[in-house]
Amino acid sequence: MTTSRYAVLAEGLRKRYGETRALDGFDLAVPHGMVYGLLGPNGAGKTTAVRILSTLVRPDGGRAEVAGYDVARQPRIVRRRIGLAGQHAAVDEILTGRQNLKMFGRLFHLGAKRAARRADELLEQFDLAEAADKGVKEYSGGMRRRLDLAASMLLAPQVLFMDEPTTGLDPRGRNEVWEAIRSLVAGGTTVLLTTQYLDEADQLAGRIAVMDAGRVIADDSPAALKDTIGGDQIEVIVQDAADIPGARKAIARVSAVEPTADDENRRVHAPVTDRVAALTEVARTLQDGGIAVEDIGLRRPTLDDVFLRLTGARAEARPNRPDTKETATA
Amino acid sequence: MSALTTPSASDLLEPDRERRLYWAMADCWTVVRRGLTHLIRQPANIAWQLGFPIVSVLLFGYVFGSAMTVPGGGDYREFLMPGMFGMTMAFGFMNTAYLVVLDGTKGVIDRFRSMPMAPSAVVTGRGVSDLIGATLDLAVLAAAALVVGWRSDGGPVATAAAFGLLLLLRFALIWIGVLVGLMVPNEEAAGNLFAVAFPFAMISSAFVAPSLMPGWLGTIAAWNPVSSTVTATRELFGNPVATGGTWIEGHAMLMAVVWPLVITAVFLPLAVRRFQRLSR
Q1: Which is more confident, A208 or A328?
Q2: What are the E-state strand segments in A239-301?
Q3: Which residues does chain A have within 8 Å of residue B12's beta carbon, measured at their own beta carbons?
Q4: A227, A244, B39, B179: which has the highest count of C-beta atoms within 10 A?
């Protein structure tokens, strides 16, 4: 029925909380059937964006369509087409997994029989069939998350919003959730996923929007985004701050980009392409130069690197720009 | 799966008023069933919840009881039990608040609000479950009261009316509980509500006749809505009443209806408004 080209379309969304602009001209266009990553540090406005798009919060300005319907004017219709997995596993701890899904199914107006059948399907799909009749209290973090995902999938939504779905999970739980997301997308669901981890966005998303201070500052494929950052990083921590220039020189030989030095932590790093060769080369140069090294290694680029590159500032949880134009009275 | 995803023509319309009313009730019932399942899955909770009033019965009835006098005469334990019922209802708003806070911090309220269910059911479902819980509380407490020798001499109609008034008070306090639950940031803060609930329940006629308190405190106690309900139920149960002859005490039956209605009239709209403002 929907003719919209995009599963999610946001134009100039604005939202202010007191003096801070949580969203300040937020634009986004998510095509159907893909995982779209919304990447940014704490306070960038990711959660506010998801809350507006999932009809929980009304924007102060701008407009948004989800599955072809306006979130502010047709929230009920939108709600029948979306699923939401927030930052907490929003399930009832006292009920069993099955009781949770049946309850939410009824509240999605599936009717008792269909709700029960759908609960069985989802418990199977999310590998919870064995634990179905245990209280959620006894579930692990990953299991709770999977149950939460299952609850947001009751209506097989066209668009699924996931706000930092793996925060607080151990690596195993994280992998479980990633697997679940991949299988959902294989089934045709569009997923908008927020995360603080470049790695996670890279693993899952077909496209990534980077957020800072309430707006999207970059929007690209993961590969292109990593190209702008410069891929993997070589990192050296010297024992003596006096050796920082020497370490810079050593790293400069293997990197196309001028190395970045962090004097405070005696840390020098730069992007490299041929990881192993670069590591060997730098280690030898440092040894030949008699530079005492505390640590040397390769690491994947982080959100910090993205931000350094895109904004020149680090991805700390900085408060949003205070509103300077008018004093907030709301 | 395809049957679920294919939108039907009716999906595109906002539901009409009758269907909305139907779903408002159906969704409320689903949320109530959740509350009942909680009761079934953790029956120990009722015991904990009733621990305080039952311990109070023992403390006040037997430990302090011998030193307590009821103005105008009468058995103190007979006087005390309606007070216990009233106190349990008064403390009830903390349960409501706590459960609302829990749903809020766990994101369950957000999940409900992102679903096509009737938004009102989030609040009405809570209210109805809490009333059912309060009825159970009263049943257990009344059984305990019978064991320690309390009796209702009012006949079945008056006895039922007395329990009705107690539930009416609990009903009114649901809205304070919902409002507070939506305002309080976390569970720890909800626990601190006890500091408010305790004097609210104690500075009343529940344990001691207000006429025995210092003048100003007695006035506060007499005008406490809990007192009107407690005094009215004492009259209905035929238990010792011990009023000081003030207007408010003389019109306990009237005020036991008026207070809850006033509280509801004030706090129900506030709670609903607070709920709607979640989308701000």
Answers
A1: A208
A2: 260-262, 267-271, 293-299
A3: 1, 77
A4: B179
For residues A289 and A271, what is the distance between their CA atoms, to the nearest angstrom? Answer: 22
Q: Which of A77, A84, A91 sits opposite B114 (nearest CB)?
A: A84
pTM over 0.95: no
Average pLDDT estimate for B190-218: 87
Q: Give the containing element (helix H, strand E) for B222.
A: helix B215-223
Task: State pLDDT tens for residues A29-59.
Answer: 999 999 999 998 888 999 999 999 999 999 9
Q: CA of A236, closest CA in chain B: separation in Å? A: 42
Output the pLDDT for position B215: 85
Does A216 have pLDDT greater than 50? yes
Provide the edge-to-edge strand list for the sheet that holds A233-238. A260-262, A267-271, A233-238, A293-299
Cα A189 from Cα A206, distance rounded (Å): 13
Q: Which residue of A has its CA nearest to B10?
A: A77
Test mutation, B31, B36, B114, chain A, max A CBs within 10 A:
B114
Residue B43: in which H helix or E strand, if any? none
- Does A118 lie at the interface with B, CB-CB under 8 angstroms? yes
Please choose, from the candidates A103, A54, A42, the residue with its C-alpha nearest in 3D space to the C-alpha of residue B31. Answer: A103
Cα(B268)–Cα(B32) distance, integer angstroms: 19
Residues of A in contact with B42 (CB under 8 A): 94
Q: Give B21's Cβ-side CA count (13 Å radius).
A: 2
> Among B177, B201, B242, which residue's Cα sits nearest to residue B85?
B201
CA gap A95, A9 in Å, rounded: 36
Kindly list the structural domains of chain A, giving each domain's residue range(s) and its CATH number in brackets, ordered by start. Answer: 6-81+157-226 (3.40.50.300), 232-299 (3.30.70.100)
Beta pairing partners, A236: A268, A296
| A82 pLDDT tier (thresholds 50, 70, 90) | very high
Domain locations in chain B? Answer: 44-109+136-279
Dihedral sign, Cα of residue A10, residue A50, residue A300, residue A260: positive
Nearest to residue B239, comparing CAs of B142, B170, B134? Answer: B142
Distance CA A46, CA A40 (A): 7
Nearest to B116 among A57, A80, A118 (CB): A80
Q: Predicted confidence band at B15 (pLDDT cuts at 50, 70, 90)?
A: low
Is the pLDDT at A163 greater than 80, yes or no? yes
| A137 and chain B in contact, CB less than 8 A | no
Pick the closest to residue A322 from A43, A4, A6, A113 (CA basis): A43
Place of tokens 């007191």: A18
The mean pLDDT value for A217-237 works out to: 84
Reported as a single tens digit per residue, the pLDDT across A195-215 is: 988 888 888 999 999 999 999
Report residue A118 as tokens.
């759908």
Query: pLDDT, tens digit, for every residue of A99-110?
Result: 999 999 999 999
Strand pairing report for A233-238 and A215-220: unpaired
Local confidence band at B56 (pLDDT 50, 70, 90 cut-offs): confident
What is the torsional sign of CA B92, B96, B99, B105?
A: negative
